[in-house]
Design a protein that fits this description.
The protein is of the alpha+beta class and about 100 residues long. The chain has a domain of about 70 residues. Helices cover about 30% and strands about 25% of the residues. It is built from 2 helices and 4 strands; from the N terminus they run H-H-E-E-E-E. It has a 4-stranded antiparallel β-sheet with strand order 1-2-3-4, with helices on one face. The longest helix has 21 residues. The N and C termini lie far apart (about 60 Å). About 20% of the residues have low confidence.
Length: about 100
């Protein structure tokens, strides 16, 4: 193997690694911009704010919060003694998902 092919291989390896690193998704409960459409606009709401709103409407101990590209928050919580799926639309009131 000559010096040129070794250099080219190292360059391609580094470029591939950098591209994969850039595509990686950090663990978070928020919507990942890489998983959303370019036209989706992710707002600045946080899981803590969503949980607080859910609790204010009677949902107990919201957990497993996840944010969709549509800025809706999804969680599990207790309500009337049962564990339910909770949905919080942007700027709205939380509600129990129909399949809970």
């Amino acid at each position: 193997m000559n010096r040129r092919s070794i250099s080219l291989g190292a360059t391609l390896g580094a470029s591939t690694f950098a591209a994969l690193l850039a595509m990686s998704v950090s663990p978070s409960s928020d919507a990942s911009a890489s998983a959303c459409l370019p036209t989706d606009r992710i707002d600045g709401s946080t899981a803590a704010e969503a949980a607080k709103t859910m609790e204010a409407f009677g949902y107990v101990k919201p957990h497993d919060l996840k944010k969709g590209c549509d800025n809706y928050w999804y969680a599990r919580a207790a309500n009337d003694g049962a564990t339910v799926d909770v949905v919080l639309p942007p700027g709205g009131k939380p509600f129990t998902a129909h399949d809970s």
